[in-house]
Amino acid sequence: MSFYKIPQNYAPGFVPQRYTFINDAAAATLTARLTDTRTAESVAELVLRDLWMPEIDVSAFLRRMAAALPFETGATGLYAPTTRTMTLSLAIGSDKAPDRIFLPATRETRSGEPLTSLPEVRLIGAEETDEVSVHCRTQCSALLTATCNGIPTQRTYGVAAEGVALFRLAAAEFPDAEAFDLHLTADGVESHFRYEVAETPAGSRRLAWLNEAGGIDRYTFPLTEERRYEIERRRLLLEESGYTQTEAVGEERLRIGSAYEPAAVLEKWNLVILGAALLHDADHIRQAIRWRYKIPMQLWIINLAVYVLPTVAEFLLKNKRTSSFLTVAANGIVTSAAFLKVHLFKPTTDIWGAWNYNYFKLARGVWHEGQFIKGIDWIDWALLLDLPAVAIPACMTAIKKRKEFKQNLLEAGEEA
């Protein structure tokens, strides 16, 4: 019996993870034993019959083993809780695969990567706690700078970990704190987080959840309480008397709001603008083929500048930066305005080759560097005008979502 393929160490345990082995002994019946390495408890025993190359997916067993819960004990500091990983051993007969450590995650993470889906700049109430998990395989250190009444105070922490290290911040331990700066170094990889201390609004709810990277995120959600009552009255008439029967049905709903919802909406709009710009540039290639015009190499290079702003906006959206709102709005305005200025009026500088002439002149025909160029069809016009058609709604959406974002933060007693 020999193992052909086994999962990587520190792989995400909530997606298929398969052990494949070769039944070179041609045994008719095989028994696979899965064991929790830390507790030595049996997880499962599987009987395999008449298989030459069996394959076992252990993700369902790893989900049963997972015990990732919010870390509620201990003071401010670095910890390496064993509940944030699952360790599994698989053996078939006398053959045993190397032990593997899995993270309670649905995506791959790198060594030193923070296991969080929230922004680097966060808010915390004076009595609240928060935690930041990081993928750490050896050693993790932390430097916490607490600013109280304008005076910074530093504390250092360290811990050895095998899979996940966790920093717990209890704001109540730092009276009169205004802000916290946290520098984490895990396996030589540095990351930085900043906390602004804000007043916790009445009626809000602080929730914790397991994110896709295998860390616990927390957020204080503004809460909207809604009560509805439905009253029905019936009058019953009998032979000698009557009475009224009243029924009241009440319904209570609690609605939580999030300040991080707009990112997904804006990302779609940003990709729409990017797609419209790509289609427009593809149309320039079609024009050049029609005109038998060779596009200069420097023009290809210069045109890459068009994609800088959409790329920056996409990066900010992926990292959930608040500046992404204005960047998407600027992307919509700048990209469409630049294309319209070049093709409807005149470019600021004569670096665009045949497109130094606007579409009206190109439709009539122009001489450019000894070559006669003529022809603008309806497709050219459509792929030019679709830019403002998508950029204007994208810009308006970005401004609207930024306003909603700030309103949600204000309702939560926070500032963006």
Structure, briefly:
Helices cover 28% and strands 37% of the residues. It has seven helices and 23 strands.
List keywords for this structure.
7 helices; disordered C terminus; 416 residues; single chain; alpha+beta; 23 strands; 5-stranded mixed beta sheet; extended
Layout of helices and strands:
Layout: E1 2-5, E2 11-12, E3 18-22, E4 29-36, E5 42-49, E6 55-57, H1 59-65, E7 77-79, E8 86-92, E9 95-96, E10 100-103, E11 121-125, E12 129-136, E13 139-148, E14 151-160, E15 163-170, E16 177-186, E17 189-198, E18 205-210, E19 216-221, E20 223-237, E21 242-256, H2 262-291, H3 297-303, H4 308-318, H5 324-344, H6 359-364, E22 366-368, E23 371-373, H7 378-411
Parallel strand pairs: 2-10, 11-17
Antiparallel strand pairs: 1-3, 3-6, 4-5, 4-8, 7-15, 8-9, 8-10, 12-15, 13-14, 13-16, 16-17, 18-19, 20-21, 22-23
Helix pairs in contact: 2-4, 2-5, 2-7, 4-5, 5-7
Describe this structure in words.
With 416 residues, this protein is α+β, with helices and mostly antiparallel strands. It starts with a strand and ends in a 5-residue tail after the last helix. β4 and β5 (42-49) form a beta hairpin. The longest helix has 34 residues, at 378-411. The protein is built from seven helices and 23 strands. The model is unreliable at 411-416 (pLDDT under 50). The strands form seven sheets. Strands 2, 4, 5, 8, 9 and 10 form a six-stranded mixed β-sheet that branches. The protein has a five-stranded mixed β-sheet with strand order 11-17-16-13-14, with no helix packed on it. The chain has a three-stranded antiparallel β-sheet with strand order 1-3-6, with no helix packed on it. The protein is extended. The relative contact order is 0.10. α5 (324-344) packs antiparallel against α7.
